[in-house]
Design brief:
This protein is of the alpha/beta class and about 500 residues long. Helices cover about 30% and strands about 20% of the residues. The chain has 15 helices and 19 strands.
Length: about 500
């Protein structure tokens, strides 16, 4: 008997270890079943449409999705003879496009989740056709400037995101001259760094100068990742007295406090450093990205010249600069306050021209929400109200609606909102409907109009502060797929938040 026990005990120990491992891991797998993550009970299916936007043009046909990836794309003439079909979702005349990638969003989580938060923000993203967004390192608390603060961000996001989410780290004076600290943050998975050249409005995210940025670029070169910069340098301004000419309820008063010369001064200084990012430069491998360009004058001309010189530079603007003009903003309507500011109608026209001609590379939301009381909607004081446009859910219809007069095409939307953003963040698996890429796809009806009012399902936490409320737009998102999971369908989200954390490798 003792001999028998001696032989059987190791087997029992092995079996118990196996059972423990199995149940531990199976419980994790069962925690989010496929049915929880997706409104579609299939992991292998076809999407068909008369208009599928691919890198090689708009086609009529079908996209085969299997286990989260695009495995084949078939044109209509070849599809008719294809007998291996399985489950088919036919969208008819609706447009099938690659999921949007928003490289500039503030979800304020952790620490200020009452402003937005990962659950509400990513639900809004899904409802707007956004399948991946990159969260900014400030407005949350504490700001994401170290491995420890990144860990807090990851913990807050895990199991709370309905789309894929990546993260920028912060370049601030406290870490700029500490190469090991920056390298640790980049090794931990941030997709790049972000800095401000003017006060950010957040106490634990102070502004940087050229020397900080130079150090940051030298570290980023080793990782071949970008530095995103809020490019405004404060210049000497007049003291604006609260008189009839400078009433803080007038948008023109705020506009005077942040003239285009602020953007020009910052970009001029940045471009003395960006020359090092070119081939053979001391920071080759690093990349400079100017966020939310507002000035279409001297600032844009400087950037065009830098690109021609071979600097590794890109620039984005935002839908609110393309939709609105200073002349249209009514007294006291602080929903429109942002930095840099919305400028005049002629500036808006020039931004559209630069975007269409390729001098502006891409678009982002710069979704920057807050608590309604901080917008001072009743007081209407532009000088004291929190700045930021709340827009995440609406960036597609805004771009499309206001772009109609300029002849914007579906392919251009995909370039500005999917392909080039994917390249900026270094994610080859994203950004296009192409075999081998993630099945990040959304379906929409470009010609369907809707009013942004209280009857519309809006997932942004505080829709009342959005400058787009009360407008009429074209372009209704029907469904959104993230890695093959149907996460949003006509007002309904999947029951579990199964978006992935996107970390650099």
């Amino acid at each position: 008997m003792d001999h028998f026990l001696w032989r059987i005990l190791p087997l029992l120990a092995l079996l118990s270890s196996f059972l423990y491992f199995y149940f531990q891991n199976s419980s994790k797998l069962l925690q989010f079943s496929h049915s929880d993550c997706s409104l579609l009970p299939y992991n292998h299916y076809w999407i068909t449409s008369k208009s599928i936007v691919t890198p090689r043009g708009v086609i009529s046909g079908a996209v085969e999705v299997k286990e989260g990836n695009i495995v084949s794309i078939v044109k209509e003439e070849d599809w008719q003879g294809n007998s291996k079909r399985g489950h088919i979702i036919d969208y008819g005349e609706a447009v099938v496009m690659p999921g949007l990638i928003d490289v500039h969003a503030h979800l304020d989580d952790p620490g200020r989740a009452e402003w937005e938060g990962f659950p509400s923000g990513t639900k809004a993203a899904a409802a707007g056709g956004i399948t991946m967004l990159i969260d900014m390192p400030l407005n949350n608390f504490p700001s994401t400037v170290s491995v420890e603060t990144l860990r807090l961000k990851l913990e807050a996001a895990e199991k709370n995101i309905y789309v894929d989410v990546g993260f920028w780290g912060g370049l601030v004076p406290e870490n700029a001259f500490n190469a090991s600290s920056l390298e640790a943050l980049l090794s931990a998975g941030v997709l790049g760094l972000k800095s401000f050249m003017c006060p950010s409005g957040i106490n634990d995210f102070p502004m940087t100068n050229a020397s900080h940025i130079k150090e940051g670029l030298s570290v980023l070169a080793k990782f071949r990742r970008p530095l995103l910069v809020h490019a405004e340098i404060q210049q000497d301004s007049e003291n604006y007295l609260e008189d009839d000419a400078n009433d803080p309820r007038h948008y023109s008063t705020y506009l005077k406090t942040r003239p285009p010369s602020w953007e020009e001064a910052a970009i001029r200084e940045l471009l003395t450093l960006s020359k090092d990012t070119g081939i053979g430069g001391s920071a080759e491998g690093a990349h400079l990205h100017i966020v939310h360009l507002s000035d279409s004058g001297s600032s844009l001309q400087l950037l065009k010249q830098a690109k021609r010189s071979g600097d590794s530079v890109t620039v984005e603007t935002c839908p609110h600069y393309l939709a609105f003009s200073a002349e249209e903003i009514e007294d006291g309507d602080t929903r429109f306050k942002c930095a840099p500011p919305i400028r005049n109608a002629a500036n808006r026209e020039a931004l559209w021209k630069a975007l269409l001609e390729g001098d502006i590379d891409m678009l982002s939301s710069d979704h920057s929400p807050t608590m309604p009381e901080l917008k001072l909607l009743n007081e209407g004081n532009f000088l004291k109200a929190w700045g930021g446009i709340s827009s995440l859910q609406f960036v597609l219809p805004v771009t499309w609606s206001y772009g109609q007069k300029y002849g914007v095409t579906l392919e251009q939307l995909a370039l500005w909102w999917s392909e080039r953003p994917a390249k900026l963040v270094g994610k080859d698996s994203k950004g296009a409907i192409e075999v081998g890429k993630h099945a990040d796809i959304f379906v929409w009806e470009p010609n369907t109009d809707f009013d942004l009012n209280d009857d519309l399902p809006i997932y942004i936490k505080h829709p009342s502060i959005s400058a787009y409320m009360g407008t009429k737009l074209s372009g209704k998102v029907l469904t959104t797929f993230v890695r093959g999971n149907l996460v949003y369908k006509e007002g309904k989200h999947a029951s579990a938040a199964c978006g992935s954390l996107i970390l650099a490798k």
